[in-house]
Amino acid sequence: MDRLLRHRLAKPLVFALCLLPLGWLVWRGVGGDLGANPIEALIRSLGDWALRLLLVALAVTPVRQITGWNGLARFRRMLGLFAFFYVVVHLLSYVGLDQFFDWGAIGREIVKRRYITLGMAAVLLLLPLAVTSTDGMIRRLGGRRWRNLHRLVYVIGPLAVTHHWMMVKKDISQPMLHAAILVLLLGWRGLAAWRARRHTGAASKPQREPSCPVRVSPPSSS
Amino acid sequence: MLIRTTRRIPDSEVTDKSLWLDRRRFLALGAGGALMGAGLSALAAPLSGVVKSPYTVNEALTPQKDVTTYNNFYEFGTDKADPAQLAPSYFGAPPKPWTVAVSGECGKPGTAAFEDLIRPHPKEERIYRLRCVEAWSMVIPWIGVPLGEVLKRFEPNSKAKYVEFKTLVDPDRFPGQRRSVLDWPYVEGLRMDEAMHPLALLAVGLYGEELLPQNGAPLRLVVPWKYGFKSIKSIVAIRFVETPPRSTWMKSAPHEYGFYANVNPQVDHPRWSQGKERRIGEFLKRPTLPFNGYAEQVAGLYSGMDLAVNF
């Protein structure tokens, strides 16, 4: 499995897979197959995929450590950036198609509708993560600082799930599923950190490297 | 000697009911797809003897396909595509006889067959706006009879201040009722003067045909100045009562859904604005009108009431 993950074509394949939902939506949109309310269907579907990709990106490290498929780490950045990409398209469709660039109305919604406030907060917090996703930025920030910054995703995940949960009118089965997965993924990290601390003594820093950004470039202080 | 014992079929080999219903659904979808080519009308029987009513708005109709495939009817499922997809196999045709139990504060309670309920009244076609609480809207040519005229026949007495309606409970026909998303049966209610208002319609059809299950066959309410969820579908019970009934959505989220639920651009839903709406088929949102554009006819019913409190 690990050899397959390291195959030359694995990355292009995952890249194409990540674009598939958008392609499918555009195809259905052009063909008039998005139902009676295509704008709502588009915005909600983009949001769903942003959330799913965020959870998939958060699953990379736990799955890698449990299975030992270290090749998975190669996909983490791309998955995270695709989550950000879907968030951006989701936001742009809300601004352009739903509100038709009515900035006043958008501003009022952000202030007044708590689920939109939370969504916007998640977007703002995602921005620095996307900007610092390049190798150069990792080097410039230094591994530890980069890692600390990117722990923001532990806030973004709950924000995103809550944003969806509060928007749903009645049937909360999907947000509940997302929340359960998120609790599992974050809980696993919490447990791993707690164990690491117990093994090495509370005083010293955890020695394990579960969230090492790019293993080819060792952390260097700027 | 060989003694053959009949092999007991283990539960694991018995096809689950939902699966064979799905198979039926698959076949029905195939047949439905074939009929689509011949037009949607092949699925519903046309209604005859319909007179045009003056209670009609002069606005572009929402296409029949949208009216019959984009439905909030949680009895089938919470997705708006669920009702049209599941209705052919699960609901089929409305069971016959379809009866409506009329009870409570009235002189002539009893159970009436759906046909007997409607027959004495001329069927009217009325083109109404429909505004959903989710901020989308349609324009629908309904066919029905005035609710007030029907109710009068049961001789409501002076204690009848409100009227309560209930939807059929039957999880075999309504697969959505197998989950307790809402507190079944679906319950709605009107104040007596609202129910007697000439705009309140007991609908049996749309676009010249009998109602399809996803639109509330065979009998539903249409109250055009209120949010869509007040217009209860597939009615099996009507009760005249002295105190205001608690509707299903009031029970589900009391701070979001009130008893009156009049369309009001000034009073927002706690989670979204009601100032504008997306008319299905249009790109830009349009402003929402007070009482969904029926203020001239119905605003008097609420004079002196604080509509922000009585939302």
How would you explain this protein's 3D organization?
The complex is a heterodimer of chains A (about 220) and B (about 300). Chain A is an all-alpha fold and about 220 residues long. Chain A has 10 helices and no strands. Chain A has one domain. The longest helix of chain A has 30 residues. With about 300 residues, chain B is α+β, with helices and mostly antiparallel strands. Chain B has a domain of about 210 residues: Oxidoreductase, molybdopterin-binding domain (Sulfite Oxidase, Chain A, domain 2, Alpha-Beta Complex), CATH 3.90.420.10. In chain B, a hairpin with a 6-residue loop joins strand 12 and strand 13. The interface between A and B is medium-sized, with 19 and 25 residues.
Number of strands of chain B: 13
Taking the sheet with the most strands of chain A, its summary is: none
Order of helices and strands of chain A: HHHHHHHHHH
Which value, in Å, is the CA radius of gyration of chain B?
Answer: 21 Å
* Fraction of helical residues of chain B: 10-25%
Structural class label of chain B: alpha+beta
Beta-strand percentage of chain B? Answer: 15-25%
| Secondary-structure class of chain A | mainly alpha
Q: What is the CATH class designation of the domain at 41-250 in chain B?
A: Alpha Beta
Number of folding domains of chain A?
Answer: 1
Number of helices of chain A: 10
User: How many distinct beta strands of chain A?
Assistant: 0
The low-confidence parts of chain B are 23-42
Please name the two chains that share the biggest interface, counting residues whose Cβ lies under 8 Å from a Cβ on the partner chain.
Answer: A-B, 19 and 25 residues
* Total number of helices of chain B: 8
Average per-residue pLDDT of chain B, rounded, comes to 89
String of helices and strands of chain B: HEHHEEHEEHEEHEEEEHEEH
In quaternary terms, these chains amount to: heterodimer
Helix content of chain A: over 70%
The CATH architecture of the domain at 41-250 in chain B:
Alpha-Beta Complex
**CATH domain topology of the domain at 41-250 in chain B:** Sulfite Oxidase, Chain A, domain 2
